[in-house]
Amino acid sequence: MYHHVKNLMYAVNVGEPDVRFGRMLLEQFGGANGELAAAMQYTLQGWSCDDPERRDLLMDIGTEEISHLEVVGALIRMHFKPMKKELEDAEQDPLVAVVGGGGLNLFNSMGNPWTADYLKIAGELDVDLRNNIAAEARAKITYERLMHLTDDRGTKDALQFLMTREITHMKAFSAALESLGKDPFSIGKLPPTPGLVDEYYNDSTGEDPEAGKVGVGKWIEMNGLHVVDSPFSFDAKGSGLTVDGHNGHNGKSSTRPRPTSGAKLKTA
Ligand code: MN
Ligand code: MN
User: Fold this and answer.
1) Global pTM value
2) Which of 78, 130, 136, 228 could make an S-S bridge to 254, C-beta 3.0–4.6 Å?
3) Are residues 174 and 90 in the same domain?
């Protein structure tokens, strides 16, 4: 059940309305990483969740995101005000000015309509919690970038609040994920193929024009991976790529399927 409280979650004041900035704020309203996407993703996951404690968390955060949507909406409404009078401001977003009368609608900053395709819902609790941690990270970085693009004190304060809450959510989703006590690489029920799962394919040849010779970092082995050379090797004389049976660093052939002999390979 939903209930509307007439206060905003964070009081919003805009000193200097800026239509162009309002348009950028639409990313956090009807955009891919915006508040509606977050609210719908968590709420729908919550409605589907059979685990009562994690469902409660998903519903709490999903509900808070609707309150964030309301705060972003209030900011956009204030920034869009000049659009209703001035041609120059209306020109910044004719779709909003002419079709929407300078009001709110579910578009991103480029006028693309909001879509359920933005939602990442896998129907598996641990996978969804990972989706949510990534969504919070994207929301955080979007707020941070927006904060760099405005000098308006009231706008910056509201964005600081919203940005901070996304890290709070990230912490909560991370705690929920850890509380499941699952091996982080155990996803779903079927085990991966032993051996193959630990092969990292070094699929790059040559030198980086700027950085020179850059190899695979030692850190790749942190989770039990080892480096296996690509089945493609580069002929420096310029005849392009060839397929061969390069051995892996461990001396064993990679179990990676090779392209069939008729496969066309792009020459460098
Ligand atoms: Mn939010
Ligand atoms: Mn959030």
Assistant:
1) 0.84
2) 228
3) yes
